[in-house]
Amino acid sequence: MLWLLEDPESVQFEALLPVLPGITPSRRERALSMRLESPRVQTILAELLLRHALLEEYGLTELPRVETGEKGKPFFPERPQLHFNLSHCNAALACALDSTPVGVDVESYGHLLPSARRSSAKGTADRRDGTLPSANGTAHRRDGTLPSANGTAHRRDGTLPSANGTADRRDGTLPSAKGAADCRDGTLPSANGTAHRRDGTLPSASSDPALFRVLSDPERQWVLAGESPQEQDRRFTSLWTCKEAYGKARGLGILYELSATEFAPALPQWSQYGHCFQQGREAAWAWTLCAQAPLTVKRVSLQDIL
Q1: Which residue of 6, 18, 21, 153 pairs with 145 in a disulfide if CB–CB is 3.0 to 4.6 A?
Q2: Span 157-167, average pLDDT
Q3: Which CATH architecture describes the domain 2-111+225-305?
Q4: Nearest CA-CA partner of 49 in 90, 93, 10, 80
């Protein structure tokens, strides 16, 4: 069975302090060593979800001893007939249990594909011409200029950007009219660290290294066919969860040539590479399960496992 839990971000770590004594020492120490609260919470909730699933599905009141395989996959050495796998992200947690090897992956949208993160600043949508909507409804570019009728960009104060005839600095950047360093590829650093081009557009997903490192050619074409950076990110996340779930089911994690596997997800389930795949695409996250046969999917609440 696949157990899913949404919205771990709604839990504060302080609320988990009463259950910490019952958490496996190694997992508890790992959680306490984490600097950020979000991964701390996810680490503790993942074990609570596993304990809940074992109790509900197999009647186990105690968590069996856990060891880690050569490639990093955890298992129950004293219960070799019982296989499990865990995954968590900011939006959800997943626990898969079965009598045969299983792998599951959950991922939030918007963080795997860098070009999708660059497509917006704090949730603001970029228009196709590279402009951003402003409070008064006027479209402006990321460098603060406004498109004019003759195509010349001018600033809000009516001035024009300076020409690019200035000398290169030793670090390869060019001084701009505002004193900001322009990169050699014509991009400008923004306040949030995202590089954008002089015309206000963002680097294309087609040049994203992740597409070449992780995907096959047909997969890459399918991702780039998405109508928006957000849709491209959703497609990439869909494929990534397939590859990671498959690797985890085989005990490899992501320690294999990801681009050598090629997926074309057919929701809600399909068979490939001798395994059954199930996938769900939620509003803010996606999950993929890889098992020998279809598993029942059950959703639980925080109240169920706390």
Answers
A1: 153
A2: 45
A3: Alpha-Beta Complex (3.90)
A4: 93
